Fold:
Amino acid sequence: MLSIDNSTTTRDRSLRAALDVVRSEGIQELTTRAIARRSGLTQPAIYRHFDGKDDLVREVLGEIRALFYFRLERSTIGATGPDDKLLTAMDAFRDFAMDEPRLYDALFFQTSDGAPQPPPVDPARGGNIFGFLVERVTEAGKGGFIRAEGPVSSALSLAAHAQGLVLLYRQGRFGSRERFAEFYRRSTADLLRGMGQ
Structure:
């Protein structure tokens, strides 16, 4: 994940500027020219740290994944049990999609053939998002909150549920953010109750 101290490297400046471009304009607008404008760096200076645009995009996706992962991880601090950890993680999933829509889209909705994928998971840059969800499902199963068998398929069901609701929200099906958040929480709890039977 990006350094937060004042000794920012050219590479970190490039990645920060790239995140800003994606956050404000979307991944499709990510160019070295846009990064140069935001960072004050030259395009050649940016390319010295990356092996072309696909490498740059992969690294940006890695940073987005790290931001999302750390938000999920932080959400469970102070949770009172495995069921609360799972519900708060699902809420954090929803909130990231709502708070950072273009970052979320870059990470999850690049569907064209040949679209760059994030680099392999590096624990120093955050963990595996889906793995985090599987761990929460496994804990909830051991705690008796949901059936313990099939944590991967249960985590897939939860992720698909969240993705679908996010898309419906973006289509304007819920009206306000607050109404969506309330429905999402209730619907997720209903889904989890069904997994417990």
